[in-house]
Amino acid sequence: MESTTGGSKWNDRMNVTIVGSRLFDSVEYHLGDSFRTLGHTVSVLDVTDVFPVSVRLNYWLARFSEFYDWLVSVRLATTVVRLRPDLVIIVYRHLHPIIVEQIKKHCPGVPVVQLNPDPLSNLEKQQVIAADFDYYFSKEPYIVNFLQTKLGVNAHYLPEGFNPRIHQKPTIEKAAAEELTNVDVLVYGNLYAYRTRMIERLIRAGINVAVYGTTGPYCRPVVQSAFRRQYLVGAEKNRLLYGARIVFNNLHYAEVTSVNQKYFEINGIGGFQLCDYKQTIEEYTGVPADAITFRTIDEAIDKIRYYLAHANERYELANRQYAHFQRYHTFDHRIGQLIHTLGMPSLASSTGVKLTAG
Fold first, then answer.
1. Which of 196, 298, 301, 358 is the most buried (most CB within 10 A)?
2. Is 139 inside a domain boundary?
3. Is the pTM of this model over 0.70?
4. Claim to verify: residue 235 and residue 339 sit in the same structural domain
């Protein structure tokens, strides 16, 4: 592998390499878009760049063949080095630790960052803990605390966000959008067992629910009847999240204190959201957390019934959240926070965004 160093080391503009998914609307997509918008050069590398197999097949081959796992990561590292990056961000959690070792060996002085957008249960075989990253970023304070206090690594808290160039509020008034969409409660995402059980409780309580996303194992018949068989993305996602009277965001049970990316997207689009209470919501929200969260499914049902009957309160809360999240919680803000943590204050200030959460 050819030895090299980054191209513009800490100058006003960086050459950034992101290792992860290139799918539209993925975290990697939005990180790349924000870096580009802020004036940096970005390359996104996926496992398909080194072997012509699907991402899913690559995952399972790597899981059961250590040599294949090692080889993919070495080839990815070789590609990263050839790009002469100033900053490397690895989002995937399932790559062999050799990728970090090789990048650091051949790109001395270039920060190699792990950015984990998933909850505690999605740490795979703990590859990211085995790897010697320069920085670890996680949206989950519990994970950050464990990494800092138990392992002594350089871990930092960084919430997710939304992309204001993709997650956009439709121009129509919300009341008119709700009339056109005619959805009382919208749920979207992967239909995991915990999510379907909660949706079933809503349906059995007489609430009209529309379910979007991808089906999973053990999807219960009552929920199947509400499933629209559509994955939400782009303008259609904006239209439906904004037009639904209530977007019900039941967070993964492994979100100890954190929230998911959907939490930021819904508020950034201008939808009215009801979600599980998590401690970090107190930090993020622009309205009282108790007004837009629930702690039990019975409380969720009661609040859904209340807000369906009080449209003006929904509109006011959604508008306040929209303004707050535009100001504080875009991915552009997150890039500024990340750069500031990496010790590049001039680059952080050049983003033109506030570094506080609000």
1. 196
2. yes
3. yes
4. no
